[in-house]
């Protein structure tokens, strides 16, 4: 795959106006207020996975609709005092996996919550444990068009709410510092990271890698790759212009560009210039709209991988994130 999107100099200036509904803030404030009426404390159960320097808890917290959402919480053993926290969201089709798989944040002195994604976990990795009990109208296979004819019904309304509630959950766990919570994730997890930073703007940092779920119209117009291709497939079947208008109205409530405008935290992004799954212009659309009009400009940085597709920086990202977050948190 060659570099197919805009030249880098154009990407760095690309800050498009998008179709944002007038009631965007009301829609999401009402959504979160409804979710927070299910205010039971997260259930935290210590499990033995045979590790001596890291402890693991099986966490269940109420997400959208009070539905139980699972997560793994890892943290260093033998540590006193409240720990900073990294809440991580998974890529498309993946789940929280096994409890011993991601212990690098705990090994670095952080608490790490790895949130399961409702209804996912069977596409790659080692599985998930959180069902999505909500049904859907007509949809193409995948998650992008589940409930696509009404923003109240859309799958990502539930997932983004789960992501915000994951931050609420760690802030209620003893031994974790509620003032030092960062959010992170790649691809779908990067899109959830951006959404949560907009919905819970007092997180201290957001680290989205090759993020998905921003500038949907642009993505659909320049890539055939899934998952954005699920939208194309749906609209190729439902040809009625009224249906198309409703689809784009729904996605206007879910666009990472709008969430980026409401973020207030420091941000460390990454982009791959050969990425045909999450095109670079969609990533820069969110980055260039990140936390505008602050009295004091926030720290925001973009790491660019010119020769990579959707794998982006891969495992090169962790040392970079660790060093960057250490200066922020």
From TrEMBL:
Its EC number is 3.1.1.41. Keywords: Hydrolase. Transmembrane segments: none annotated. Residues 1-326 form the Acetyl xylan esterase domain. It is an enzyme of class 3 (hydrolase). Pfam families: AXE1 (PF05448). One of its GO terms (molecular function) is cephalosporin-C deacetylase activity. This is Cephalosporin-C deacetylase.
